[in-house]
Amino acid sequence: MEYLKVMLVDDEDLVIEDIQSLIDWEAHGFRIVGFAYNGRQAQRLVEEVRPDIVFMDVSLPDLDGISLSRKLQERLPEVVIIILSGYMDFKYAQGAVEIGALSYIVKHQVTPESLLSTLADARETVEKKKFSRLIESRFFLRSVLEQGILVHDGMQEALSAYQDPFLLLRLTPVTPWYGVREEEKEGLILQPHISPLLQIRTEEFRILDILIYHADILVFLGLCPSARPGKRYLGSLDGIVRAFREELERQTQQTFVALCPDHETVLANLYGDQSLLENAREMYRLHEGETLLCVRSEGTPGSDDPATGDLNVRSGEDLHFIDRECFLEHYEVFQDKLTGCMERLTGEEDVTGFLNCCRKTLELLSGFPEWEQEERPFGCYAEQIAEEVLRRSRACHAACRQRQQYAPSTNYMLQYIRDNYAGSPSLAEAAEHLQSNPMYLGQKFKKDTGKTFHNALNEYRIDRARELLDTTNLRVFEISEKVGIGNSQYFSKIFKEITGLTPNEYKTASYAVSRRRL
Q1: What φ, ψ does residue 6 adopt, rounded to 5°?
Q2: Are strands 103-106 and 80-85 parallel, antiparallel or unpaired?
């Protein structure tokens, strides 16, 4: 339970003791955090403990309660004031209304029931004020984050929690690269996922706010007074990042990684630091197994602690070798350059250049008729992505060479299989389309490929089935139907003949590998 903080201000010990003893405060969600017996003491203590509710005696030795309440409301408008008086006085009651006090209570008339009723009204008022303030602060925060708007006087009060330096974390889901649409990433994180994160507590940090931002989660952390200032705080972030990740994984069944600047953020630099993390959001792909990555901008000195893993955001690489002529006519040179380029960019931690290299390669491959867009994912990390890009490059080049070497009728039948495998393609039907003899075409096909038409069809169907097992939660009989084999038992038999595993064994092995990679 989140307790509301209550402070009692009265110049009589007996009044404070009576109010304390009327109810079990904590059992009803309230915690008394301080007492004050005069105006100056009350003003200092309110600034220090920042209570949610203040019971204020109307008559104090050095300052009347109405004037003090007015000062407190100007400094801390979210505080709820309840005026206490020894008797009903119209002048004081009118003053309480003018300062926006929640209630005016005559001390000797307070009962447990009336006190609880007043506190219930106070809780509702506090929550409304907090919600209104949260909405206003988030509006201004997003204006700064997305548009780089400078903080002006009209925003200072709403963003008062950010006046001191704070820490900016960006939690991003670990997802397979390439082909994942932005709306699919956005669907991984929903507003209900945020509330449990706001309840996480540590000795070093207090959560100022958490926002869903561009399919990621932005966390604003204030430093507690006990936290050590400066860059040394980075070592303490592991604990709260671990708590965030565990809670998000419990809710979403998704692995997350955290990125942060290697320095504290201030409002004036919030837009720049957010842009830094935006540009570095794919950086985790170069750091498999790491969960907290500290990012520094180009030319900014790194951290004194090498263990923080400072990352520089770079880009720019000569990718002119990725062209059609080099791929077709000088494939070995192309493959060597591509492998060397990806290894170099990975070693230099140039994630932008690495992904550009992979993306440009895939764009080149997609320009060939032999290219087949597969559903098999690329993996999440650089090593897996590079391995898959190179595999697809080899497959596409082999298909290009194959097309050059095979008879036109063989190429036609291979494409016919790819286009019709989910139905009931047959050698006779292909021969009819080509207006040729099925026996002759079958012999020619086997001479070129080393396979019968039927075997080639089954192998292609099982390849597609493996992709579906890797990328979906479809059941075996559903996959069997999708690849054109109506009998699931026959499908399982063919699957094991080709792969050495049953579909369920393959699924289990594939899942285990994917979990190890994450």
Answers
A1: -120, 140
A2: parallel
- pLDDT of 518 reads 45
Residue 109 amino acid letter = Q
Question: Cβ distance 504 to 475 under 8 Å?
Answer: no
Q: Give the number of other CB atoms < 10 A from CB of residue 403.
A: 16
C-alpha of 160 from chain center: 26
Residues of the chain with pLDDT under 70: 1, 88-100, 134, 151-158, 179-187, 191-192, 225-235, 298-317, 370, 372-375, 510-518
Kindly state the DSSP code that residue 454 receives in the 8-state scheme: H
Phi/psi for 57 (5° steps) reads -65, 135
Rounded distance between C-alpha atoms, residue 46 and residue 119, angstroms: 19
3-state DSSP assignment of residue 70 = helix
Closest CA to 61 of 42, 77, 34, 80: 42
Tokens 């070129």 belong to which residue?
448
Q: CB neighbours (10 Å) of residue 76?
A: 14
Q: What angle do CA 500, 501, 505 make, to 5 degrees?
A: 160
Q: What domains, with CATH codes, occur in the chain?
A: 4-130 (3.40.50.2300), 164-312 (3.30.70.270), 314-405 (no CATH), 408-518 (1.10.10.60)
Q: Hunting for tokens 């209900």 — which residue is that?
A: 192
**Residues forming a β-bridge with 334:** none
Q: For residue 2, which of 218, 231, 207 has the smallest C-alpha distance?
A: 207
pTM, to two decimals: 0.61
